[in-house]
User: Fold this.
Amino acid sequence: MTIDYETDIAAWASQQARLIRQRRFDLLDIEHLAEEIEDVGKSEQRELASRMAVLLAHLLKWQFQPERRGSSWERTIREQRRALDLHLKQVPSLKNKLADADWQTVLWADAVTLAIKEMGDGDFPESCPWSMHDILSPDWLPAD
Assistant:
C-alpha cells in the first residue's frame, strides 16, 4: 500500500526510505522525493541566514548601544559564531553563500529589521560595514 505524501508526510518519508533500502525504485514517489531533497538544502541555507541575522543584529546593538553592552550580548555573539562555524564545517558548500552579494543584501536587511525591533529606529548603515572575516572572527567586535 502506497502512503500519500499529502496525507501523512512522516509516514510517507518512512515508506520512501524503506523502498530505497529495498531497492524498489519503481515504487518511489520521485517528484516528491526530489522536492524534499531540495528542501533539505533550503533548510540549511535558512539556518545559516537566521544565525547570521541574529549575529549581525547583536553586532549592531554592540556598536550602536555601547551603554547597554553586557555579558548576555557577548554570549549571544559567541554562541552564534560557534554555531555558524560548526554549521559551515558540516555543510561546507554554504560558504559560497557568504560571498554572495545578493544574499548579503537580504541578510543585512533582516539583521537591521531585528535590530530595529529590539532597539527602535536607528541610523544604521545601508549595507554591512564589516567584512565577513571580521563578522565570523571569534574575538572581533565593532568599534563605537
